[in-house]
Design brief:
This protein is an alpha/beta fold. It has helices at residues 15-29, 51-61, 79-82, 85-88, 92-100, 117-120, 134-143, 163-170, 209-213, 260-276, 308-325, 341-351; strands at residues 4-7, 34-36, 43-47, 70-72, 105-110, 125-129, 147-148, 176-179, 190-193, 200-203, 220-221, 252-256, 281-285, 298-301, 329-333, 356-358. The strands form 2 sheets. An 11-stranded mixed sheet has the order 1-8-2-3-7-4-6-5-9-10-11, sandwiched between helices. The longest helix has 18 residues, at 308-325. The protein is globular and about 60 Å long.
Length: 360
């Protein structure tokens, strides 16, 4: 496939940019694939009403067909075509939307028949999000249809937060890639199941459990630490639950300790063992500790230890740099799980396939 590239400044969608977006929208309407920036990560988009276009998403990514997609909308009016009317009338979705949309929150609700089963993995529910990114919203509006879009990476790899990583994975697999700069948030949206009581966060993101409870009290979060959460025979309601996700090429291990000194010491001992085997080692660290891993071949810092927003913005880029360096194994510091740190550790846990080393 001949992939075209359009560079658009999200802060200056002028007439030339609008013309480019109209061309991208025509590709969407005709059943093509367009990679678009969002505030979370880049998405691989297609017309959510078009079964063949949706099937092409799975083909381009190498994604299992029972892994549901999120439907992106440009305004509230699109909800009426996607979510069952009687469910919308109970007010839960609109209450949360008024607080968190546009933004990094996906809500799972009962779907209408117009949304093909291939979008939802055969379930009668669908995840819906109104993104904050001006390019994503402008593309959806110009298309006139909701856009189904998972992250724009090959299945299982770290999600792309910049154009270069989308090009690396999707060149020749899609019709158009929009270069809209770097994503702000850096991890995928929070996925909140609002079909039951209590409301349940299935995948953590920048909208935290505390945020949700500030609007509707009593919400809970699914325990993503459970080993069986990585692989199950059931069709998941949310992406990011069933399979190993976000993984670099080398095996990744997370080191957990009750203090940083103990954690750094344990990682350095492992580095010595691996170097004795003639293996190359990467370390995912924080700013405060990065200088202590002198034996590692490459050290990537996700930012200051107390800044989870920096961790989110830098995580996937750091994981991809280990791939570029060609390391044999990666050791990662356990990061604080406060605020958005919960979402960061969720992604790191998936990338490590649940491998955590407890430092005694």
């Amino acid at each position: 496939m001949n992939t075209r590239i359009f560079k658009i400044d999200p802060n200056n969608i002028d007439e030339a940019a609008q013309e480019a977006l109209r061309e991208c929208a025509m590709v969407i309407k005709e059943g093509g694939l367009v990679c678009m920036p969002t505030e979370t990560v880049y998405g691989l988009g297609a017309n959510a009403y078009d079964k063949q276009a949706v099937a092409n998403i799975f083909k381009a990514k190498g994604r299992p067909s029972d892994n549901p997609l999120i439907v992106h909308i440009s305004d509230y009016d699109m909800l009426e075509l996607i979510v069952q009317e009687d469910f919308l009338q109970n007010g839960i979705m609109t209450t949360l939307a008024d607080r968190f949309w546009p933004g990094p929150l996906t809500m799972i609700a009962p779907k209408t028949s117009i949304i093909p089963d291939c979008v939802s993995g055969g379930l009668n529910t669908v995840g819906v999000r109104l993104p904050r990114h001006p390019i994503a919203r402008a593309l959806i509006k110009a298309s006139g249809v909701p856009i189904a879009a998972p992250s724009a990476n090959l299945s299982g790899k770290p999600s792309p937060t910049c154009f270069e990583h989308v090009r690396e994975d999707m060149m020749g697999r899609v019709d158009i890639i929009i270069d809209g700069g770097d994503s702000d948030v850096g991890v995928e949206s929070t996925v909140l199941d609002i079909t039951g009581n209590p409301l349940n966060i299935l995948r953590p993101g920048a909208v935290t459990l505390d945020d949700v409870n500030s609007v509707i009290q009593g919400a809970m979060e699914q325990d993503w630490h459970l080993a069986h959460g990585i692989d199950t025979s059931e069709v998941p309601k949310s992406p990011g639950l069933k399979y190993k996700h976000y993984a670099p090429l080398a095996p990744l291990y997370i080191f957990d300790a009750d203090n940083c000194e103990k954690m750094v010491d344990a990682i350095n001992k492992k580095i010595i063992l691996e170097k004795n085997k003639k293996l190359s080692v990467g370390v995912l660290a924080t700013d405060e500790n990065r200088s202590y891993y002198r034996g590692a071949d490459i050290v990537q810092s996700v930012g200051r230890r107390d800044n989870s927003m920096e961790h989110a913005a830098n995580l996937f880029t750091s994981l991809r740099r280990f791939d570029e360096a060609g390391v044999d194994v990666i050791y990662a510091e356990m990061l604080p799980q406060t605020g958005v740190g919960d979402a960061v550790m969720n992604r790191l846990y998936r990338a490590a396939a649940g491998r955590i080393i407890k430092c005694e």
